[in-house]
Structures are given as C-alpha cells and as structure tokens.
C-alpha cells in the first residue's frame, strides 16, 4: 500500500524536509501522487530510499548517489553486497577506535599504561575516500605524487602529519567566529597552505582556493571539518579564498 511522505519519514526516521529535498533534486521522486498533490511512496520507492541511505552512511554525496542509482547499469544486488563489505570494514575500524578510547579512559583512571604507539591504535589514514574525486578534479599526476609520498612515509611520519592537521583545524576552529580577513585567521590559513604544500604537493593558489570551495560544495568535507566546530568549513573557504587572491602573482 502506498505511503505518504509523513508516514515514510516516521518509518525511516528521516525528516520530511529531507524527502522533499530528494524529490526536488531528482534523487527520489515518487511516481504517484494523490489528487491533492501529496506524494505517495511505493515499495519500489522505499527500496530506492534504502539504497540512498546506505550510500549516505558510507559518506557518498547526494550528487554521486544520484549518478550511481540512475545509471542504467546499476545492479542493486551487487550494490548491496558492496555495501555489506564496506560497512563491515567501517565497523572493524570503529571497533578498533572504540578499543583505543576505552584504553585511554583506563589510563586516565591509572589502571593501565599506554605507550605512544598504543594511543594511536585504530587510526588508519592509508585509504582516502576522496581520491577518485581528487583525480577527476585535479588530474592523476598530482594525486599519484601525493600518494607515493604518503605511502613511503613511516607510521611515525603519518602520525605526525595527522597531529599537525588536527592542531591546525583546532586553531582555525577557535577563530571561526572572527572575520576570515583578520590577521589571526590569515596567519592560521597560511599554516594550512604550507601544510598542504608539504602533504599533498599543492602550491597552486587557485587550486588552494578551489579546495576551499570544495569544503562547502561536498557535504562529506563540510561534515568532517565542522566536527571541529560548526561553521568552520565555510570560514576556511572564505579565508582560503582571501589568502589566494592576496598572494597570487
């Protein structure tokens, strides 16, 4: 029996606004409506919604999800099998992180001693979920150089890079309510620019500005960056644009 949008929202635990948005962007448009214009979702629509939410759980942006599920070659069974593999891997990594958190709490209580290596068990930066998008936007050569550099780093080097990035994000988060044009904001963004030069071989100011825009255009980046503080992604986008425009030759 077809379901109205409110019923689907209550069943799934998703907002009515989100369902309307999926319809507006052509991601999930119910084929049937009532005479009064209310959307009616069929079982097939619900299956599509399930696929969308699986992809969202794996941090795919809505634009990419639409591209995948509207492809004539899209195989739902194959996708489900891939979802299972990816979610199992995600669970494995989360289990390792949880174990590290529990050990850290035990150490804080004085129950165990953790080595520096123990403190970073579970952190895994060997896979980049945005690599394909980076290849599409900026070409294989730059990404290959970056990957080659990263893959040849020692674990200590990778840990050091992660800590550097975390420190800069935290510094920028404390400044996000200030003007992105302030001296402090521009000094912190300069650190981010040089960090990116070192870590991904990007010294092109216009690409740097473009990456800042990507922080807003791609909700995966926005969500990850805003974990440090709501509005940080937008603040960084504006500060990076100002920095690039000021220093370009």
From TrEMBL:
Residues 1-71 form the HTH merR-type domain. This is MerR family transcriptional regulator. Keywords: Activator, DNA-binding, Transcription, Transcription regulation. PROSITE patterns: HTH_MERR_2. It comes from the Bacteria. InterPro entries: DNA-bd_dom_put_sf, MerR-type_HTH_dom, MerR_fam, TipA-like_antibiotic-bd, TipAS_dom. It holds the Pfam family MerR_1.
């Amino acid at each position: 029996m077809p379901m109205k949008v409110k019923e689907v929202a209550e069943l799934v635990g998703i907002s009515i606004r989100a369902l309307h948005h999926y319809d507006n962007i052509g991601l999930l448009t119910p084929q049937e409506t009532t005479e009064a214009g209310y959307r009616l979702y069929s079982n097939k629509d619900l299956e599509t919604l399930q696929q969308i939410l699986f992809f969202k759980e794996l941090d795919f942006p809505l634009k990419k999800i639409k591209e995948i599920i509207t492809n004539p070659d899209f195989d739902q069974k194959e996708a489900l099998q891939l979802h299972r593999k990816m979610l199992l891997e995600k669970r494995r990594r989360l289990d390792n992180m949880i174990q590290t958190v529990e050990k850290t709490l035990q150490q804080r209580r004085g129950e165990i001693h953790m080595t520096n290596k123990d403190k970073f068990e579970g952190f895994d930066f060997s896979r980049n979920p945005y690599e394909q998008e980076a290849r599409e936007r900026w070409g294989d050569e730059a990404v290959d150089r970056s990957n080659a550099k990263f893959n040849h780093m020692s674990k200590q080097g990778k840990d050091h890079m992660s800590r550097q990035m975390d420190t800069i994000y935290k510094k920028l988060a404390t400044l996000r309510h200030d003007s992105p044009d302030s001296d402090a904001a521009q000094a912190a963004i300069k650190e981010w620019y040089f960090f990116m030069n070192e870590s991904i071989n990007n010294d092109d100011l216009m690409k740097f500005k473009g990456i800042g825009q990507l922080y807003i255009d791609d909700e995966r980046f926005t969500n990850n960056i805003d974990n440090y503080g709501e509005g940080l992604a937008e603040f960084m986008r504006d500060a990076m644009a100002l920095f690039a425009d000021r220093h370009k030759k």
